Amino acid sequence: MATYYWTGAVNGGTGTWDASSTANWSATSGGAGGAGVPTAADIVIIDANGGTGTITIGVGAVCLTSNVGAYTGTLAFGTNKISVAGNATTVFTGGIGYAVTGTPVIELTYSGSTGTRIFQSGGTMTEAKSLSLKVIAGSDTVQLANTAGRGVRDLDFTGFSGTMSFSSTSSFSIFGSLTFSAGMTLSSPTVGIQFLGTSGSYTITSNGKTLDCPLLFNGAGGTWKLIDNMTTGSVRQTTLTSGSLDLNGKTLTTGIFNTSNSNTRSISTGSITLTGNGATILSAATLTGFTLNGSVTVNATYAGNTGTRSFNWGSAANGTESTAVSINVSAGSDTVSLTATSHVKNFNTTGFSGICTPVARFYGDVTFAATHTISSGASGMTFAATSGSYTFTTAGITIRRPVTFNCPGATYSLSGALTMGGTSSVTLNAGTIKLQNGTTNYSATWNISGSPSVTLQSTVNGSQATVSQPSGVISATNATIKDINATGGATWNAFVTNGNIDGGNNTGWDFNAFAFRYIYTRRKNKVIFPF
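and the corresponding structure tokens:
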């Protein structure tokens, strides 16, 4: 085993590292060239005396270990790589003083099972100076030194069957793609992994491995595409700060998901499964700069009974129908709460048996389970889709919050009766609302005021549904009413002079504002004339 130094004494350090060029290799730091060519059994050091020229990485650039931490010239890889054969030591030490061109790859080739290979990139690594690491063999341990913001470009373990670990608790940066092998093991890292690439498209291949650490996607202009399902630890947070996360029809499973900021970012079609509890597990109060490509479903799977799971997706200022995600709560007996400003596509609580606070704007199907209850309060549910046909499944639950249908261009059909608790009201402003035929739908207050118009009818033509209010006067405006029986003790006025239309098969409604007019004769006799 020999030690070879790249020397700047020859052409200022400009030369080629390959299997035959000897000119720039010295036996001492800064010494004369011509010492020979490093083999897979030799140590390579490229230090401050290596000059400031360009080292062209050619075919056959191999070594046992390599240290380029103090070099300040340029490493020109082209499409070639540096192969490192060592084990049971620090096999590569990088820096940030040099420039990098081409596709820079450090390839670890040891195929045994002994010891720990340590890869140490430069501190406070930048995207422009990052090197890719490929571990193509071995069943030992490969440790990524991650102090002081170290990182790599691509990280690829294809062919490796040992254990990957980290050396400290600092976050580790990846500026490119990540690939795990099916046969490797991940130690339980507590460090965060940051995906920071700012241009181009990258891939993440998990091969069934769980990354038990926080994840951060924060690369303006970068896109990360899941090749298979990706899983973090059950209490870990995944954060999308900038860039594009392409779920690619796959599932990201994590404890908490956060994308509340104003940067340019997007998520594309797929699923996010949230396993956390006792916290805001979906956080996006600010959706400024956010784009949703396709449909995204958030599945909440916590099965216990502790705490409150909160979902916050959008606000009155920046949430829209086009950025609404679907939410499924499939387990648990805790409390599930949607914030009043959230914008949700479909909402489904099948499998949940706790307390639900469904205060949000809904743009799709809403399905309640008979196994849970609805909390009471002044904030309510708003059905706000602008097109399409959807179903609201009430499952016999009493709803103790206001319900508003303001869905111009859309149709909502109820499955089951709509039963409001306490003084909670139902407001019909726009769209078509179909009450299930044969059901009685109760509210302390029905507000029917088309803005500009609203339709209230049964789900089956010719078969009535019933609306009930115990007292008071309902004065409908701009409403088309069909197959609806009105009852309960209240007075149901839908005068045609107020823009209402009698669609037929209605009972209990007064559509004529002048049903009877009293005229008094000179003899003060009252005569009733029907109009």
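(Above: one complete record from the training split.) The mean pLDDT is 95.
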